[in-house]
Structures are given as C-alpha cells and as structure tokens.
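Worked example (supplementary).
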Amino acid sequence: MNILILGPGAVGSLWATKFQLAGHHVSLWGRTSESELSLQLDDAPFTTYSNQSISSLQEADLILITVKAWQVESAIEPLLPHINADTIVMLMHNGMGTAEWLASKLSANPIVIATTTHGAYKPSKQQVLHTGHGYTQLGGFNAKGAQCDFLAEVMNHALPEVNWNPNINGALWIKLAINCAINPLTAIHQCKNGELAGAEFTTELVNITHELVEVMNKEEIEVEFGSLYATIMQVVNATAANYSSMRQDVFHKRRTEIDFITGYLLQAAKKHHISTPENAKLYQHIKQIEQSWTEQ
Ligand code: PAF
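After joint prediction of all chains, the assembly is encoded as:
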C-alpha cells in the first residue's frame, strides 16, 4: 500500500518504520520542509522517506494521522485539496472529538479510528525506540470506514497485534476514561503513574470513576463501576514507572490534550445534564496551569 504518515512523532515513526519493513511504500508529512527524512527503529538500519510530497499525498491509499488531537485540524486543513476521495484516513491519538470534524471535511472518504497501547519514544529526530509492546484496535467511524476491516490484517502483519473492533467507540471511551483518571492527576502532582495507587488518591479516583460511569452509560457504553475502576488501577500498576503524556506536557510547558480528554467528557456530561464536579475541577486546574505559561 501507499501509506502516508501525518505527524512522524514517536507513534507515527514507529508505524512508519514497521510499515516500511513490512514492504509498504511509506512517506511522511512532518512539520519540517526537508524533502527527505531518515528514521532508525531501535537497532535496525536507517531508512529514508520522502517528506511533504504532494504526489505521495495524492497517491496515498492510507493516511495515518498521528499528530496530537489538538493539532489535527491545523495539520489536515492545508492538505484537504490534495486528498483523493478513495484514500482511507485513519486517526490515532489520545482523546476523542476530532473524527466528527474530519468526517465533515472529508465526507466522501472512509474514516477509520484507532487506539493503541504501544509505547514509543523518540530520543532524537531520526531515532525511534519501541519501548513497550502493546496492541491496536481499529474501527470504522463512517459507513465507508466500516468496510475497511481488511486493514486489521494489513497492520497486524506490520506491527501485531491489531484487531478490528466493530464497537470502536466503546474502546475509545474506555481509553478516554483511563486518560481522564491518570493524566490530569499525574500532571498536577508531577508524579509517576504508579503513585496514584497510594491511599491519598483513592477517594479522588473513586469519584472520578463514578462520574465517568454515569456519563458513559448515558453514551450507551455498558460499563460498571467495579470493572472500570479495576481497569484504571490495572493500567496504573502496569505503567507504574512511567510518566503520563500529560505529566510530560506540563513538565515541558507544552499544550496538553486536556480539551480532548477531560474536556470531551465534560461536554458529554453537559449534553446529558450530569454533574461531574471532580472531573471539572481537574479540567480547570490543567487549564490554569496552561494559562500561567502565557501570562509569564
Ligand atoms: O497518556 C498516557 O500517558 C497513556 O495513555 C497512559 C495509558 C495514561 C499511560 O501513561
């Protein structure tokens, strides 16, 4: 396949190199205007990719968008006139709320959404490390996207394990719930994920989870408090030594994904007239932190 990766950060570069190793024709669309970019996955040899090539964009069978949620609109907007109506467009990022906008702009295209638990890290511009083996779920966002289940096999060949999930919305909500619980707290307290297992966080995590369950049930996601709380704590323990992405963003004073994580939850809560004070407090706190950087 002709695959274009829009946003060759850590996750985008991981998929670029894995697709290339699986025999696909891969090109990149990064922020830099250099016409070629090189990448090295772990100890594999360097491979070179065209960058910002309009012809690669026009010929793409699949565009994989791996920029952060808040960058999706500005990254894709200038490319819209060059995207072929047959090209499959796939979103892969933390948070929710970008697919609606994308589908409105590319109403003829198949839109697929993905969530992955792979860990990747880019210590330098050309190097990508696969730091944690995970799995990836895909599903259609619109009717044409729902017919793209063959992609699971294609992607599974490049970087297993990949499954097609007809209920991708449910999977995204579970991931959103995990991010709502872990990301703001670890960012505010500047702590590792594992520290949330301490007794001082129990009440807060329980309250956050109760609010999530109420909103998710109204969104027709079947989930119970006990199982969601257990899932969240399982991720806290499995990633105990890691810093969450939001903790890292706050540490480096970069814009966070809060609007597409807790912000998305608050919007859904408002729609259903559900009160979510615990999550609202976390949202306000992260927004205040972000604002304090621009006021300096
Ligand atoms: O955003 C993150 O950091 C990750 O999604 C997660 C699961 C919270 C682990 O750190």
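Two points are worth noting when inspecting this output. The mean pLDDT is 97. The CA atoms of residues 86 and 262 lie 34 Å apart.
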